[in-house]
Amino acid sequence: MSSELVNVSQPEKGVKRRKLRHWYLKLVLALAIFVPLFFLISTLGVKFGFWDWTVGLGLNVKYAPVLLPLLALSGLIGLLLSFIIQPRKGFAVSLAALIIGAAGLGHGAKVKKTAGSLPFIHDITTDTQDVPTFTVAIMSERAQVKGVNTVEYVGKKDKEGGTLVSVLQSQAEAYADIRPLILQDAPNVVFGEAKAAAKQMGWVIKSENVDAGLIEATDTTFWYGFKDDVVIRIRPSEGGGTVLDVRSVSRVGGSDIGANADRIRGFLKIMSNA
Hints:
The protein is α+β, with helices and mostly antiparallel strands. The protein contains seven helices and eight strands, in the order αααβαββαβαββββα. It folds into two domains: 116 residues; 150 residues, Alpha-D-Glucose-1,6-Bisphosphate, Chain A, domain 4.
């Protein structure tokens, strides 16, 4: 009699375990769908103007340390259940959850490391002594942005480690490679090349003045839709040829995590090879 009870209980336990795994994997799948959608919606919502950037970025910063580890852990547990419970199945969903969660955590750690290694600034220029300035074409747009950053460069200070640090000093220390570009071509030739390079970078041209040697443009980031303004200044060089300067300034936010410097580097690389 007892042997019969044992034989009956074993299949019942197997059924219960399979049901447990079935419902758990559904939960893992739901999390694997919800977590990426949460970050996607909070991010693109900023880009399309549904809410302010402080809301979208704030949601991501607040919930990423909770949702991403939860997703990765749920995927890991799912893999264990898929391996232990016979028949072995459900590996794909669990592995996807683990990979998505781990990738998100890795990306977050990379961004945090980059932000920690760079100064808390958002205004970069090739000429820190005679800074290129924006005209009304850009300034009128910036004036409509709530909490817009100032475009005053000399004497502007940003918080870093609880203290006020000169932007000029911070840029000199972190981006020593950002310098004016000397070209052999005449200013009018460089002007055309610069305009073409700006378009190649995906910037939207807002104004151009050949006589003044100025081109102004705006670059919009893909995810949040952050707008950063760029001014290109083209002047004759004393030794012949042309001096090319570029300035890139974020409209909002304290730290650009190196985005403005990278933007200028990309533009100067195109111009160097023009």
